[in-house]
UniProtKB/TrEMBL annotation:
InterPro entries: 6-hairpin_glycosidase_sf, 6hp_glycosidase-like_sf. This is Amylo-alpha-1,6-glucosidase. It comes from Chitinophaga caseinilytica. The keyword Signal applies. It comes from the Bacteria. Keywords: Signal.
Amino acid sequence: MKRLIFLSFLFTSAASFAQTGDLKLVSYPGRIEESIGKRALARQILSDSRLDTVETRALRILNGFNAGNGYGEIWIRDLNTFITGSLQVRDKKDVKEALLLFFKLQGADGNIPDGAIAKKDAALAYKYASTDLAPGWVSHKNTVETDQETSLIQAIRKYIDATGDKSILDEKVGGQTVLLRMEAAMNFLLKERWAADYGLIKGATTIDWGDVQPEKGWGVALNDKTKWTIDIYDNAMFIIALNDFMTLLPKGDMHKKWKQTAGDIKKNVRKHLWDAEKKKYIPHIYLDGSPFPADFNENEILYTGGTACAILAGLHSKSEIRAINDQFLNAAEKEKFATIGMTVYPPYPVEVFPNMAAYHYQNAGDWTWFGGRMIHALHLNGFNNEAYAEMSPMLDRVIQHGFHEWYEVRSGKPSGSGDFRGEAGVLYDAIQLLRKWAAKNQ
């Protein structure tokens, strides 16, 4: 029988092989050499006990809404990625209330905050906001980001898909329906975060999907050092949100407007951000100058998270996805404990990004939170051999260490928050997708 050979981090020094059914796992970097057929792959997925273990452990920690044990807040960008699993262990009403909370905290201009936290627990240096619509709660916004609005819209779509409860769209918050508040959130992006010369949305300079500016200081807030830029992550998230929003709308003027907006942004992403020759995205288009020295070639850096979101947004052909995935694997093979969730490669040198050391956190740390989204993207585009193979080291890592925010690629050390629900959520979703496919193809 043909073998599927892939990268598997067993976190041991042994060079020996570990056998799992029909697939051979190796403890050194590798990739698919020969794809097995659909039926063989389906049987292997359905018999892989690691999926049961990770699913069970994921559901065990998805009973809360804060991002992990290192965070007090409910973050909308995190909740968006574990809401489906949460609905398996929490009452639908609780999940609905968590979503409605962000509409209660919505700004008058339509913006959506990042984090919501009980007022009594708000102790960090954020600029907190409060409203009579959510007594006892305060919120804050990492203003360098442009993904809070799009994350909430995506979460609403997931909630409705999982529950069938479209009544949430008619819920009134401060006299306005959720549906109209969703549109107000997108209009905020078109008004306050719009780069008219490019027909794309903008944000501050960060590393891919990250929320920290290069200069030393409180890097999550816009300031006089901010350099406005356009990147793939923000725009891919907007396209996904627009696609989700349109599925919730009846045909009519509103649907037509947002369909046109989505189409225009897709064209402009391909025109301005995608490097067709190198088959990768340029990191940034700077609108008021770069924060980096002229001799620093930022374009050599591979952005994985935003690129995975671009595939999920429907921006790529199968041949492009294969080329992108090869680049992710090539990058992962350069570091002993990396998976395709390594945020960027190579990392930014500390000399040009003083606020974050190389190989730390969002600067080439390994985040299953985004690597897991690439598993979704591969599966949804028919790359099931690759999806299963490239998820394997993520499963092994969780089984050994539990769910963590990120991992160091040179030591394999788990870092950041423990019980990180974003990692649990994307792996839970990936397992469901692959199992559903396998059940139909065994």
